[in-house]
Specification:
heterodimer, A: alpha/beta, four-stranded antiparallel beta sheet, 20 strands, 36% helix, B: Ubiquitin-like (UB roll), Fumarate Reductase Iron-sulfur Protein, Chain B, domain 2, five-stranded mixed beta sheet, 10% strand, disordered C terminus
Chain lengths: 570, 342
Amino acid sequence: MYSHDVVIVGSGLAGLRAALEMAGHLDVAIISKVYPSRSHSGAAQGGVAAALSNMDGDSVEAHTYDTVKGADFIGDQDAIEILCSDAPRTIIELEHYGCAFSRTDENKIAQRAFGGHSFKRACYSADRTGHALLHTLFEQSMKRGAELQIYSEWYVTRLIIEDGICRGVVALDIKTGKLEIFHAKTILFATGGYGRAFKITSNAYANTGDGITAAYKAGIPLQDMEFVQYHPTGLYEHGILLSEAARGEGGYLINSDGDRFMSKYAPTKMELGPRDIVSRSEQTEINEGRGAGPKKDYVLLDLRHLGKAKIMERLPQIYHLAKDFIDVDAIKDPVPIQPTAHYSMGGIPADNDCQVFLNETELCKGFFAAGECSCISVHGANRLGTNSLLEALVFGRRAGKKMLHATNEMKFSPVNEKKEISAAKLEIDKLLYNKGSEHLASIREELQETMTYKVGVYRNANDMEQAQQKVNELKDRFTRVKVSEKGKNFNVNIQEALELSHMLEYSELIVAGAKARKESRGAHSRDDYPNRDDENWMKHTLVFRQPDGSCELKYKPVRVTRFEPEERTY
Amino acid sequence: MEKVTLKIFRYDPGKDSQPYYQNYIMELEPGITLLNGLNKVRATQDASLAYRMSCGSAICGSCAMKVNGHALLACKTQLCDLAKNGLVQIDPIGNMEVIKDLVVDLEPFWASLRKVRPYLVPDTLDNPELERKQTQKQFLLIDDVTTCILCASCYSDCNVLEVDNEFFGPATLAKAHRFIYDSRDAKAYDRLEQITELYGVWDCTHCGECSTRCPTETKPMARIEEIRQAVMEAEITNNNGARHVLGFRETVSKSGRLNENYLPARSVGFFNIPALLGLLPVGIRMFVKGKNPPLIHKSIEKVKEVKSIFSRLKKYRKIKPQHITKGDINRLDEDSISERKV
């Protein structure tokens, strides 16, 4: 058994930022299933939002309003106010840590336009802003040396909560196959999103919602799981992210006729509409037969008019991704794109200091969540681009501050080591020795296809009914899954089986939440209920796990401070 | 459909007495990346095969592996570009111990990184509520080097590390460069001094493998060259590497050719008796084999032309070396960078 005052699970922006706040004051450990520099925060490209007003007359107020509106009025406004008002300080802090930012003529941090933002608000480092931020925090973590212990390539399989008190986690050392308890006074989950359940996704292979599933299985409800953001510019068939910065810098979206179709859907903002609207517009173009290519199943991102110099200085990564993955030269040709599952708005419900809720009102002692795995909720039904890096940094720090205080006032609560280890072992043994012959990769593939095609950009009762049945069928088949590799040492087979079990568990919740929500709001868009219904549905979904493994939906109100819901046009 | 054979290095220290290769035959689908090919092998043929992967979009650096002898990122490489005569050989990246199959122990790589204070060491701030000022040109100075994703491809294929695992390695030197050339860092000079010591920037043999294998714009060898120039401009010359450069220049500028008897002694220092004695056995062996350079060093015929080249070069030196500061280093290179960028 390992013991630390604080255990942070996840080494992306939120986890690292929280760790820096506590290192040196408490015994802090980070557990990550990858190495810190490989966390998925690094894949964010276009920028991080803050009303610095380096380019124009932006304000925190405008940022707040844009975020509330972008969230389709289901974000919690007090949390959004915190996010936006702390943004400028956050960016300056990261600059002082050494993050390399692109610069203006006045030698300040440069900012660019982004979808749904009414000013040039996205601070950027070319088109690899997440990478620059992540590596900066990784550098800072190395500066702390022994003050910060990092367990890389450890995979957390269980969260231990008893009597409303969080006590530790059980983790698998991937290198040796050994299960260990990490005993802690406080735990932070910063475990990222759950987009890997989709076939077309910009998410890393690692983004299998392990944290949210562990929390759910430990009795924590999950919030707003139905809100999954589809990013408008995923590289065709690969789903790989091509940054919104491409449009922020002036790129066009065109259909097979060469028309800039966004003029029909968001005549004012055009390509810089928010992501939910742009993704739907693309899908409509494809569905109505104006898609490009032999199968008419994609649209095009046209950068040609920007010219080589601008593309290579501001959007080099996009250029290389298109070239390396589908051999398209973005300087000469438009790039085939399609909506791709991108961001998980839902997750572990937490208060404005990142402490996790046990139910609609009560908090769980010693358990915190920050970043994409959390649902605070600053993004509501649709996140604005560049607000996720910001959220991870702002709320990572807030979690750290709150935990610093809380941990000092807490003792280690007892953990039944034998019981927890044997429960974790049983879970693995069930996969290893169930004598079934179900094919793991097929179950995964069928799940991903179901989620992309039945619970995708457009949803309806019929499709989701089918999805629900399919997920249940797959869950049943999974009890007979074959894991052929039995070794202890770096057993990726057992890891992918555990990951798939998580994907199956939370996919059911996405479908359940989406099926119940009979309206269209933000990223959740239904053919059969095309309008937003504030009277009945201006509320957060909370899904609870029942003792028999089924789920129960409850709801909790949205916190409105300044902005009443209004029609959302761009 | 065309077939391709993946010949993959297999080794599980818990099971296998020694490594072996296993062949997997698969269809060469158009547009399939190597990583997707491997995933297909795992999904349909052999779930025990171990390798690392995460983002699948060339930004996390997990899936570096050796293919046909050289390190690359599996996720961004098209399988059809690799299939020579229908065969692709895949090995773990080099210079590190194998944990299982294509997974290596990266600890030496991270340990190396920690040697060079891999974080900004800034001056005190004038106003802690504002960003530090930096010009776009100064940003572009570190733009290329900050694309590094720490995939360790350079570390894998570095020829120096193969014989000397104390060498800092290309990624670490690139990380040092990233701060030396950052106008906001206050310790450029100290950093230069540190990496001119043993195992640092002078131990690189300029083979170019690191830059060839680098999947980003980091190109470590180019950064190592820039550091060396900065070291010379800063006159940090009390080390073998710098003395070697100076000795090289002295003999070539005087005689038009290298004085191979003079250079080794000049590099280690004429009064460094132990090091000079250390050179003796090599010298004697060369003499015995008749490989020693002529004892009397003669100038080349057109030595005047060489001298005039050197005197012209002198005019282009912009900065008095003893006064170099970090700002000067940056100014020095802004011009060369802007040429490289545009």
